[in-house]
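Letters spell out the chain; the tokens describe the backbone. To illustrate:

===
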Amino acid sequence: MKIGIVLYPTFGGSGVVATELGKALAEKGHEIHFITYSQPVRLGSFRDNIFYHEVVVSNYPLFEFQPYETELASKMVDVVEHEKLDLLHVHYAIPHASAAFMAQQILKTRGVNIPFITTLHGTDITLVGKDKSFEPVITFCINQSNAVTAVSESLKEDTYAHFDTDRDIKVIPNFIHNIDDEKNEFDIEKRRKYAADDEKILCHVSNFRKVKRVEDVVHVFNEVNKSVRSRLLLIGDGPERYNVELLCRELGTCDRVMMVGKIRDAAQLIKISDMFLLPSQTESFGLAALEAMAVGVPVISSNTGGIPEVNAHGFSGFLSDVGDVQDMAKNAISLLSDHEKLELFKKQAKAQAEKFCITKILPQYEALYEEVLSKSKLTV
């Protein structure tokens, strides 16, 4: 198949998943065409069967805000026509699904029938979607898509709750491209750059937005460090970073908290950690938790949104109510202070992640593509 994938090319979960999906499809021989405004950060070097089409945003003085949606639709039309694509798979409802619908209608006038699939990832429904000004557009796009998927049962239910749609939404969860190879040797020297052998390492990865509750991460760490000598790695950056730095100074933990900033391969640091913290206000899935589990790191998290579908309470980690830093700290201490229990949870975390391996998820997307194409041919 020739598949156009439309995505945000950034470090965000939807862009990461869309890029890894495209790479996996290309490895199986499908021809993948990424359509976006810059090269996806996870795309890497040249790969067979992968093509990138940049949406060039014009700088016309009439526009105070450039019409990206219109330019994206035009690029979709061009790529579909000239590359002879079979279908479009758009990730994130705004503006990708609405642009795909516009492109689809334009192409119909040119005798080209192109179906499009919309994958809902989270904030397009739970945050942006709750803005009443966007509701009519998102509802329309969901209803006009040839197929709709959501990354968790929780997100599927949120979609039904907030939008006027009764169409079928298929849940296809996020995935891990490669589960960590147990034969890979643990890099003790790298670990020693961040902590002594008798210290534990806790870590957190996010975009440092309010919804991630990074201050809760620091509060949990502060409580844990009182009982178990530890270090905290904070990976990422964003609007809440300054407040987090102020909190570390207030608690006197600056010498034990390391702000790493944005890095491309966070897995290298997560892997040397003993525990991952994810106390988010809401998560449609919890991809960061899954990536931690895939390298054998148990997760202490909130129990919101789709996280309970990923982090198995009492098996791959523990779940607590949003904001309950005391319970999170208690659960973390119970693991970090018991070597045998911690080692067991590390193995179980990796076993839980295996359920979301790309080899199990990719066939679900391929089957959906075939189904959509089959129905599309019947309507021509």
Summary: The chain has 15 helices and 13 strands. The radius of gyration is 22 Å. The first helix runs from residue 13 to 27. The mean pLDDT is 91.
